[in-house]
Design brief:
25% strand, 305 residues
Length: 305
């Protein structure tokens, strides 16, 4: 999908997506008009289309390539072949494997406690009867993610089956305690966009609870989300800024960042995920957000001359 035919000398920007969203995710389309108003020609391009000449674009912006999870090696190699990619390939390599959470935790960022199950490693559900989340370390859109009440014998069996299913597919598994505050407070996503003085806070949203029970296998490209606008609290901004401060290579290289937080057992925000590769930016839920993203893209274009 092309916004319009580029005029002579007009910068060209590829908005990277996947085959199932070849015309972009609806939320991403909000940026097209602000880009056109700035004299920037933007079009949706599928990341694994072999006929695309990526060198013909002045900037290649990752948006919704949400089918990469089962082909991460291919996706990372593709990213490395696109020199004008934002966020850049080194960030993509680091951020598409959620083992980055261990690095952030070691750096002092409050994160959800996580244990890891390597492919082929045996695993038994914890002896306690709390609720746990099981998911792969490489995923997008909450795919292959389930919630298990270990007081329920059936859930204990399904949790074991979930880990085995991921292990059989040679996927690293994450096991985390379920943070029950999400059922009432929801999850807060803080969105940051590039500006003239570096990455800056743009807006926040509330995401309603999504995990209702065990994962029983593939159910689509992503799980539906309940999104509303939210005002970020000072404590949330503090955790987000602490998180971004330890991104390898710094934040000047970033076009965008999304920091996902949930209240921990003591009520303080803890990091669930740091989204630097293909996050939904929820442009339709904050006044001026599409224009701010367009301006961020213009800023990165200017840096590249």
């Amino acid at each position: 999908m092309t916004n319009h035919q580029p005029a002579r000398g007009e910068p060209r920007v590829a908005l990277v997506t996947c085959t199932e969203l070849a015309d972009l995710d609806p939320d991403d389309r909000f940026v097209l008009a602000p880009l056109a108003a700035r004299g920037i020609a933007a079009e949706a391009v599928v990341w694994d289309d072999p006929d695309v000449d990526w060198s013909s674009y002045d900037l290649v912006v990752l948006r919704s390539p949400w089918d990469y999870a089962l082909r991460r090696d291919e996706f990372v190699a593709w990213a490395a072949s696109v020199p004008t990619l934002v966020n850049p390939a080194d960030v993509v390599r680091w951020n598409t494997d959620k083992r980055y959470l261990a690095e952030l935790s070691a750096a002092g960022v409050p994160t959800v406690p996580t244990s890891w199950v390597e492919p082929g490693e045996s695993w038994q559900p914890p002896a306690d009867t709390g609720e746990y989340v099981i998911k792969p370390a490489v995923s997008a859109g909450s795919q292959d993610t389930g919630r298990y009440d270990l007081a329920d014998p059936e859930h204990r069996e399904l949790a074991g089956a979930h880990v085995r299913r991921l292990s059989d597919a040679r996927r690293l598994t994450m096991v985390q305690p379920y943070l029950t505050a999400v059922d009432t407070e929801g999850e807060t996503a803080l969105l940051f966009l590039a500006g003239p003085n570096g990455l800056a806070f743009s807006h926040a949203i509330r995401k309603g609870p999504m995990l209702t029970g065990p994962d029983l296998g593939p159910d689509g490209l992503y799980k539906a989300e309940e999104i509303t606008a939210r005002t970020a609290a000072p404590a949330q901004l503090t955790v987000a800024e602490k998180t971004l401060a330890v991104v390898p290579g710094g934040t000047d290289q970033l076009l965008y960042a999304r920091v996902d937080l949930i209240p921990g057992p003591d009520g303080d925000p803890v990091l669930v995920e740091l989204e630097l590769t293909e996050p939904s930016l929820f442009l339709g839920h904050a006044e001026g957000a599409p224009g701010r993203l367009a301006e961020a893209i213009a800023t990165h274009l200017a840096r590249r001359g």
